[in-house]
Amino acid sequence: MKLGTAFTSRLVRLLLPLFGHLPWRVNQTIGGSAGMLLWWLSPKLRRLTLANLKTCFPDADARWLRRTGRRSLIESARAMTEAPWLWRQSKSTLRSMLRYGDNAQLLQIVGSRGEAIIATPHLGSWEFAGLCLAILRPTTALYRPPRMASLDAMIRRSRTHTGSRLVPTTAAGVRALYQALEHGEVVGLLPDQTPKGNGGVFAPFFGQPAYTMRLLSNLARPRRTPVVLAFCERLQGERAYRVHAVRAGDAIYSEDPAKAAAELNRCVETLIRRSPEQYLWSYRRFSRRPPE
Questions:
Q1: Cα–Cα distance between 244 and 246 in angstroms, integer?
Q2: 43 — pLDDT class (breaks 50, 70, 90)
Q3: I need a labelling partner for 18 at 20 to 30 A (CA). Which of 49, 111, 178, 219 fits?
């Protein structure tokens, strides 16, 4: 391990427990301040955020773009600082922080055996969403180890303390997802990650071609498993999150992977438009482009 990487790893391992023990409001204040610093001190990150926003909202004025972009970095930083705090909370505490918003009843929709696919994009607090989903329903979720291998055991242990089962992003992990659905469980996925290799297809996302996963529709198609997309909105000034949901239409089961991916992206868009300032606009969603 290089010296710089080793130092960064030790620093992160020191900060994560610290964030976990801070009072909630202090944690959120630090996260917000860190996001503001990123906005002013990282021109590269600011440009990427604004470029993605401009691509997805071409008719928005410059003031809205800058305000939403700045807020996005603030909320994204809070997502990072609040994660270790959430990992330390009991099931009852997490449940008490959950509020129900638009179409939240969709989380109770199940298939013939109780199976369902619930996808949570990088919107609001996806960490809280994963922890609470496991409280509500038996859940199996894909897990990609962090780049810092030294953090893997801690993150894995923290994310499973409410009952979620994590499986790797390998062929064996995908088989485990199919088995979970057969056993009447919930499968949790991040629908807006750019898949590797041939795992995706280009489909419209805010009118632009985005390389989109095929895995979700492949999982849903055999049993026409109910597919719900949801996110947990971070409520300002309140130690709580409000869940909003939307159900995917029948196009998600299409044999045409591009049509199924377009339906998936449409649902993600619907949720993002509900709270665009809480989306991770600094993610390189359009980094992979169609051959043409």
A1: 7
A2: very high
A3: 49
pTM beyond 0.90: the answer is yes
**Closest Cα partner for 219 from 164, 254, 173, 177?**
177
CA 19 – CA 251 distance, rounded (Å):
42
CA separation for the pair 119, 81 (Å, rounded): 22
Centroid of chain to Cα 105:
20
Q: What is the mean pLDDT of residues 248-275?
A: 98
Asked if pLDDT for residue 70 goes beyond 70, the answer is yes
Q: Which residue in this structure is represented by tokens 């992003």?
A: 169
Q: Helices 62-87 and 24-41 sit at what angle, rounded to 10 degrees?
A: 140
